[in-house]
Structures are given as C-alpha cells and as structure tokens.
Recover the amino acids of this structure.
C-alpha cells in the first residue's frame, strides 16, 4: 500500500501550489486593500508591513460603498424571499398536481431555460419604465425575481413529487384545505430544498450585473455593489487601494456565505445536472 | 416532470371530465401558482415576445417614437461588419473555452473523486470559490492583477525569468482574447467540476473493485468504466457549459469593455453598445437595431441548445442509464 501513499503525496504536491495560485487573486486583493495607494503594485508579498485600514473607511464613506452595500442587501434579501415563495408554490403545483394547461406551462418554462438574459433586457427596461418603477429598488427586485428560476423550480418539483400521497389524504380527513396542506405540511418538509434555493438565489442576486446595471443607468444612487465597483473604473475613483477595499467588501459576504453553507449549494448545482 | 404519479384533484372526478369542470376543480392550484406565473410572464415571457416585435422598428430611445421598418434592421445587421465580427468572437470564445474548461474540470474531478484523498473536500472548496464570487468585481480585480503596468502576474513571470518585458495581457489586441479565455476558464472551472463529481459519484464503487481484482490498472479502469458511465453526463454538461460560455456579458464588460480596439467585443457587448451606447452614455441608442441583433443571437443559442437536447434524447433512447427522474 505504499504505492497509494506515494501517489497521494504526489497529488498533494501538485494540488497545493495549484490551489494557492487559484485563490491568489483574492489574497492579493485583500492584501492590496490594506496598503497605501502608492504601494498596491509593490511586490508579490501578501503581508504589508503596516496595515492601512483607512482605505476601508474611505471606501465606505467617501466612495459611498456603505450606501451600495445597503442597496445590495435590500435587493438580495427581497429577491430571495420572493423567489422562495414563487418557486415553492409553482414547484408544488407542477410536481404534485395534474391540471389543464400543465403541459403548456412546462413548455413555456422549458423554452425560457436557454434564454440569454441580454436578449430581453431592452423590453424589461421599457416595462420597468412604463410601470414607473425606474428610480426604485423595487423595480430591480421584481425584474430579477421574474427571471425563470428553473433550477430552483425543478428542485422543489422533484422533491414534492416523491413525497407519499398519504400526507394529503390524512390531512384532508383532518379537515385541512389545499392551502393549509401546502403551508403547514409540505413546505416544512421541503426545508433542505428551501436551504438550497435560498443560497443559490442569495449568490445569484448578490452577483447579478446586467439588470441592475441597465436599470440604474440614470439612477446612480440605486446601484448595487457589482455595478458600483464597475462604475468606479470610469469615474473619478483612481485609488487602487480603495478599489480593492471596495472589492473586498463586496466579495467577502458571498465567500463567507458559501463557505458556511456550501453543502446545500453544491447539492443544488449537482442536482441540476442529475435532472 | 412526468405526469404518472401525480395526485389527482377531486379523486372521483372520472365521471365528469369536461375541461371547464377540470379547470374549476384545479382553481386552488392555479391560485397558488398565480404570483410566480405573473412574474415570469412579465419579466421573461413578455420581454421575449417584445424583443422580436421591437426588432422591426427604428427606435432611438425610450422616449422616442418607434417607426416600423420591416426587415430593415436585419438587412442592416447582415451588412454590419461589427456585428459579424462580434458574432465570430462569441463563437470562437465558446469554441475555445468550452473544451479547455471541460477537459480541465474533468481531470480535476477525477483526481478529487479519490476517496483516499482526505483533503479532497478542502481542495474542492478552494477551486470552487471563484464561481460564487461577483463576476463583474472579479473581472475588475483581475484587470489589476493582469495589468501590463506592474501587475502581480507580470511581476511573477518576470521574477521567475520567464519573460523579459511585461506582457500586455489586456492591452495588446493580439493577446487579450487569450487572457480573457484563460481568466474565464479560471472563474468558472469549479462549476463543471462539481457536475463531473456528481456524475462520478453515481458510478458504483464495486465496479472499480471488481476490475481491480481482475488486474485492471488505473488507466484501464478510467477508459473502460469511468468514460462510458460518464458519457450521458458529458452531453448535458457540455450543453450547460457551452450555452454558459456564450453568455459572458458581466465578465467581459468589466474586464475589457470590449477593447482594446473592439478586439474582445463579443455579441452581448455589441448588443449592449447598440442599445445603451458606449460606457452607458444614453445618446446613441438604437433599441430596435439592438433587439434585432439580440433576436439573431437568441436564435443561434436556441439552435445550439436544441441540437444538444436532441443528442441527449437520442442517447437516452439508445439505452444510456441516465433516467430523467430526480434522485
């Protein structure tokens, strides 16, 4: 069995430096965020001799990252709440009930799977303007929630489908109606799926770019972090150190959420392929 | 989503199967689906239909009047050199990035699937981190890392004596596309890696053990067991990755803005520039024209997707053990 041990050691010897290079850009970003602006590009070392936390204060206050952070939190939390509700209800109906029009609905949803987002951005922009929702975060939230969240929907539908029929039957005998059965019996049973959907949607909303970019073109106050940091490039924001501080503030929440809840996330995207 | 084992509403409904009656019986189901359905209708289905409609209009801004021009936008696109170049770049980007991404992620997945590798989950997590991070912001960080002026990538290569002069990773029109492909593969590699791992984990361990008893070596086992068992997954993973690699807006816009000299202006960036102007200056809007370009691009994507779905179907009918049922 020493051959196996040697092979494992060789594997680790290759994987370890590779993994370090893989995440080096993030380490460099964090390191650059605590250096004085003139020293951002000075050397490859990751540990600065003196830590300039003031970059964070400058980014948060002067560059108004605090405001954009709040926008992103509002958009993300609302988006997650809406998407959990809509995909759970539609997944429950599609996974458990035969009803007239079901095939048509499945057909529409299937057609939307491969729809590129850039393809529909102009009508969405137009619709939001016509609804007088431009100039509000609500417009961004609605537009993001109305994208076809097929993976999330399939996860719910697949889960609800395999639950036994006796659940409904006994609940009906106890006098529970259709909506009560869904809310009080099925939804609590689907907690693992809900966890997966929450984290998938959290990351999708937090990272979304095209929709918030287009919907805030004339409303810089409503920018989310992705759009704000992107916009700094072209505007009067030349401090690389602050840029890295702003980037760190934007990326750390998703990385941390992922590290703590990765089990659900990985199950979710792996489940997408299994279906 | 098969219909075989669904709960029938109103169980003794066999005797009255009129459509109106069945719809009335299902009213609670419809009501439950209504909010989600309305949202999808408004922000997915309606925009899909409207982008086709707008493609037939000359429309120079949201407040401007629309003039019906028939197929003029499509004729203009056919004659627009920037459109064809952007089209070619998107196709080339996907054609180069997809096989690299698939091969590297498969290799990584096979290495990490080794159960005796105790630290495999740690490496899996590390390789996956770029996938969950905000694409636009990662691109901006990378534009600093790969800066031709003293960026850490150039510093590292120079201190290793691999190059004498800094490389213009993002400033040289001849190298920028390769830089973009490399960074894109880095950003998304973790995703197909997880897909492959999910596929690998469906292969029963006994198969390998039996083969090992028969004296089959690692290569033999990989070719005779892993490869055939993974094929049905390979088709669907290729589809997902290929369609994903044609949708690179956030990544490319934040990394290069399509530059230098339009050398990375892929299809979506072209559409965006036509619709909203360069750098978001809302001055040169050609919304109808951009819609027409979007329609053509959408057709291309759907053709790619449908071709692949047929491939999947054909394979399944051919007896691949890849059932559509979840779990």
């Amino acid at each position: 069995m020493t051959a196996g041990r040697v092979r494992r050691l060789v594997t680790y010897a290759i994987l370890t430096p590779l993994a370090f290079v893989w995440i080096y850009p993030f380490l460099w970003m964090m390191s650059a965020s605590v250096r004085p602006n003139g020293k951002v590009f000075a050397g490859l070392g990751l540990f600065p001799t003196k830590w300039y936390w003031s970059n964070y204060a400058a980014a948060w206050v002067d560059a108004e990252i605090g405001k954009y952070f709040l926008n992103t939190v509002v958009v993300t939390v609302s988006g997650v709440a809406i998407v959990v509700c809509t995909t759970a209800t539609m997944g429950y109906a599609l996974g458990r009930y035969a009803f007239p029009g079901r095939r048509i609905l499945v057909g529409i949803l299937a057609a939307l799977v491969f729809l590129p987002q850039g393809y529909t951005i102009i009508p969405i922009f137009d619709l939001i303007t016509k609804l007088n929702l431009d100039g509000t975060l609500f417009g961004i939230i609605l537009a993001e929630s109305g994208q076809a969240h097929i993976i999330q929907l399939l996860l719910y539908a697949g889960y609800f489908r395999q639950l036994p029929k006796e659940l409904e039957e006994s609940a009906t005998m106890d006098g529970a109606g259709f909506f009560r059965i869904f809310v009080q019996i099925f939804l609590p049973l689907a907690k693992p799926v809900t966890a997966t959907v929450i984290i998938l949607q959290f990351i999708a909303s937090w990272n979304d770019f095209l929709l918030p970019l287009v919907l805030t073109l004339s409303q810089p106050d409503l920018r989310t972090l992705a759009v704000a940091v992107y916009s700094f490039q072209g505007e009067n924001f030349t401090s690389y150190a602050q840029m890295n501080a702003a980037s760190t503030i934007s990326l750390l929440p998703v990385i941390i959420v992922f590290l703590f809840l990765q089990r659900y996330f990985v199950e979710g995207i792996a489940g997408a392929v299994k279906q | 989503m098969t219909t075989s084992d669904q709960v029938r509403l109103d169980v003794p409904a066999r005797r009255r199967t009129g459509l109106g009656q069945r719809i009335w019986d299902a009213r609670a189901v419809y009501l439950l689906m209504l909010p989600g359905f309305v949202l999808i209708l408004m922000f997915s289905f309606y925009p899909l239909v409207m982008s086709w409609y707008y493609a037939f209009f000359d429309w120079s801004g949201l407040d401007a009047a629309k003039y019906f021009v028939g197929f003029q936008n499509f004729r203009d696109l056919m004659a627009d050199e920037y459109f064809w170049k952007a089209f070619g770049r998107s196709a080339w980007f996907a054609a180069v990035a997809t096989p690299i991404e698939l091969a590297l992620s498969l290799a990584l997945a096979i290495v990490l699937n080794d159960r005796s590798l105790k630290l495999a989950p740690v490496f899996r997590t590390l390789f996956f981190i770029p996938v969950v991070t905000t694409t636009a912001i990662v691109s901006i960080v990378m534009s600093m890392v790969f800066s031709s002026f003293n960026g850490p990538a150039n510093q590292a290569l120079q201190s290793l004596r691999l190059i004498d002069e800094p490389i213009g990773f993002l400033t040289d029109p001849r190298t920028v596309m390769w830089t973009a492909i490399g960074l894109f593969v880095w950003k998304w590699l973790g995703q197909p890696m997880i897909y492959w791992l999910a596929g690998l984990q469906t292969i029963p361990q006994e198969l390998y053990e039996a083969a090992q008893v028969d004296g089959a070596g690692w290569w033999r086992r990989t070719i005779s067991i892993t490869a055939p068992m993974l094929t049905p997954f390979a088709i669907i993973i290729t589809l997902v990755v290929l369609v994903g690699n044609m949708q690179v807006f956030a990544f490319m816009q934040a990394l290069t803005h399509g530059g230098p000299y339009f050398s990375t202006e892929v299809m979506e960036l072209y559409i965006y520039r036509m619709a909203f102007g360069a750098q978001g200056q809302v001055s040169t809007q050609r919304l109808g024209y951009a819609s027409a370009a979007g329609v053509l691009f959408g057709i291309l994507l759907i053709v790619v997707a449908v071709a692949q779905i047929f491939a999947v179907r054909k394979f399944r009918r051919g007896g691949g053990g890849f059932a559509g049922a979840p779990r």
Q: What stands out?
A: The longest helix of chain A spans residues 240-274. Chain A has a mean pLDDT of 87. Residues 268 and 274 of chain A are 10 Å apart (CA to CA). The two ends of chain A are 38 Å apart (CA to CA).
